[in-house]
Amino acid sequence: ASDLQTRLRELIPEEQARLKEIRKKYGNVVLGETTVDMAIGGMRGIKGMIWEPSLLDANEGIRFRGFSIPECQKLLPKIKPDGEPLPEGLLWLLMTGEVPTIEQALAVSEELKSRAKVPGHVERVLNALPSGTHPMTQFTAGIMALQTESVFAKAYAGGIHKSRYWEPCYEDAMDCIARVPALAAMIYRKTFKDGKVLPGDNNLDYSGNFAHMMGFDDPQFHELMRLYIVIHSAKYKLAPVAGAMNDKEDGRSYWSEGEMVGSALSDPYLSFAAGMNGLAGPLHGLANQECLRWLRHVVDEIGVGASKDELQQFVQDTLKAGKVVPGFGHAVLRKTDPRYTCQREFALKHLSDNPMVKLVSNVYEVVPDVLLKTGKVNNPWPNVDAHSGVLLQHYGLTEENFYTVLFGVSRAMGVLTQLVWDRALGLPIERPKSLTTKAIVEFCEKK
Ligand code: FCX
Fold it and tell me: pTM to 2 decimals?
């Protein structure tokens, strides 16, 4: 067992006892109320699930196991003294809640390297897809092809006791985290380059090797990938999915049930692929692709030196055309996303004279006012996607269709960590209650 697995084995009984105690002591405490508006409005604000790796505060932004992004940048192990933190260290933090030593982070690095080999049939599955298949579709198809390797699925079929579910789940989570960079690099090389899959370099860390397999060997780009993976690693629970069932009893009452993919004991590959299909939506992860495209339109139509007045007009035209301004707004956050801020700081440190960086700054000065004037946007401030594309472009990763795959690789760490804890804590199948509109009206009229 690796150090990380050993540490988890020590922590799990403590956490199981803690959860039991929380339930015993506070089980009946009301966390909040659900209104009809919330049921119609995408369940925003309903407190209804356990998610340990990160917490999103509306004003402060994301904290990973209680640590803000600047704190993570300061405290997590690095390979360069003034560099960016290693995602391997973040993975230790997400899994255990503890800031690792450099030795522990490097042990995770080694563990991931030992698990990184992608079986040959995955490339054949990718080759079978028609050219022009979106990289995110290739990514989920590739993850599904990796599912043949699931240790959890085999252990379940073999009748493993439920108290041990977390062990094969850990195997799959770590294998999957280890393999997605090679899968993503394969997709990149096949879709945009010469199709030649570049072998990994065992002397590099997780992020450096990922960049290397895509064909990027600039050490500054490797730094960017470290930061990128850390800030994109969490949060969201594996895709809420309709396993919806409707039952009608004597024509009057209805019930329905949804479930979260992982909670149905679908193995980590199936669950992660489902989550990635959610990430592929333009209001979520695909926004980074859309954002760079939008900036390119600005450049094509006005020029990279667009004045603030011209930008204002461009933003208004975007809204008039019934489109969103990508990279701005958030369902929960109500301030500038700290993930935007740290990318901006990276840009100012390493590429301050890039004209696209200046354009992003000008857009930042113009968009919030225009969005606020609509009177309906709850958060006019930039999110993580407003900056990432310009940074990637600077280092030569110019194919914006691929950007959401980078997001997906990063997110493996957060979502698969929670899946391990879901199984360790014995959390049940998730079934938020859904209602028909008729049932809502009947309920309200009876009140
Ligand atoms: N441009 C134009 N209109 C916007 C907007 C934006 N950037 N952000 C919000 N609005 C609109 C909404 O479309 C909604 O309009 P409607 O009432 O006509 O449907 C209204 O303002 C209220 O929405 P709001 O409550 O502020 O935001 P939501 O929680 O509904 O949506 C997202 C949040 C992120 C989906 C929304 O702000 C958006 O579409 N932003 C652009 C896409 C984007 O950048 N997504 C990435 C988000 C994030 F970082 C991630 O998860 O990856």
Answer: 0.92
